[in-house]
Amino acid sequence: MSQEPASREQADEWGAGSNQRLASGLRQRMQRLPQQRTVVAEGLLKRVVGLTLEAVGCQAQIGSRCRVISGPDSEVEAEVVGFSGERVFLMPVGEMRGLLPNARVIPLPHAAAIPVGDGLLGRVLDGEGKPIDSAGPLRCERRLPAVESINPMTRAPIMRPLDVGVRAINSLLTVGRGQRLGLFAGTGVGKSTLLGMMTRFTEADVIVVGLIGERGREVRDFIDHSLGVQGLKRAVVVATPADRAPLLRLRGAWLATSIAESFRDQGKQVLLLMDSLTRFAQAQREIGLAVGEPPTTRGYPPSVFAQLPRLVERAGNGEAGGGSITAFYTVLTEGDDPNDPIADTARGILDGHILLSRGIAEAGIYPAIDVEASISRVARDITAVPHQQLVRRFRQLLSAYQRNRDLIAIGAYQKGSDALVDTALLLWPRIESFLRQDFHDPAAFADSLKALENLLPQ
Ligand SMILES: Nc1ncnc2c1ncn2[C@@H]1O[C@H](COP(=O)(O)OP(=O)(O)OP(=O)(O)O)[C@@H](O)[C@H]1O
Ligand SMILES: [Mg+2]
Hints:
Number of helices: 14
Radius of gyration: 28 Å
Bound molecules: adenosine-5'-triphosphate, magnesium ion
């Protein structure tokens, strides 16, 4: 017969006593158990097509890594990217050499979290967060925390401009803290140079640069010339050039974004520059097609269009009172194809775009910003009314001039036919010199606005 406790106090005492007895019993049993090792289900390599490896018998989660061993000197690291029934699909992370049928596929433990903090400033990392600048190991105390997406309702609105140090952008296409913009241009029109100017001249606290899928030579060039010693001091560069595996190129873009987030969460104003979003999309396309996704839009599988907004959404403002990530993503517009699905998608998910024009670059005007075709969607919310009036006036003059450009060029424009065109014609040399900015000359926000005021007659 079980005995009832006489009071509540007694019940608590009995409960505590039985818990203690249970815990000590469990401890004793655990000590008697033999020390167990974690079981790793090893697999065998059965098929290799292009960049896709297929293994059977392997128990590994999507996103985890495996070692594929064909012999004592042949080892390839690969990441699990999909499965079908018993088959696991992997893609190599490094070079794929010396693979043999039935090579052993051994799942690896989770990769260590990436160190973050001020120790990253001035450093150049690869897509896995390993330093590649021969400046020794990273000196960081914190590790990258798990990423949580920000609730759009608690995200602080874009309220204040960010000085990017470029006159035409500061004055005519004002960028807000936490805004995400596209930098659209063909090759060789001056994207990297413009990004370099921003890294050196911006008022942001930290600059994170993701060099994704561009030429290897460019990485060196960007660090030595565009950033320079001074620029690199408050910058972190993540570089995964075109010759790296598509997985690493993708990882580089995510890593740069995560590093930017870690600084934002410390309350810093971060400028994130990603060169280029097109190469990120192409890397995702390589992976999607390799694991059997259907090419739906101009050869791009659906996962590309799912990943682009996921990446871009991670930039922006944090919660109110915190830091911000203002981001520029370069988008290649080769052949000026208006139906390029990546450019189209980017336009839809970003808060503005700045277009660099080959015609303007060929005329020797750098940065070759096509102000007429560019837009900052938040400029109206973060600038004063007199500033907005100046911008409107500038745009009117610019477009009046452009509409009559051909007539003016052949000397067929009759002065006096249109007052606006007359003013544009009169001001044109000053407009051009306002838009021109030498690579070495910064233009602070207040100075840019003053220059715009001085340019336009009241
Ligand atoms: N502000 C500038 N002043 C003078 N020349 C410039 C300027 N910006 C770009 N250029 C010229 O344009 C060339 C290409 O510039 P940059 O490498 O920045 O272009 P890109 O768009 O990044 O090219 P790619 O598509 O090859 O990456 C430079 O080598 C330089 O000659
Ligand atoms: Mg470039």
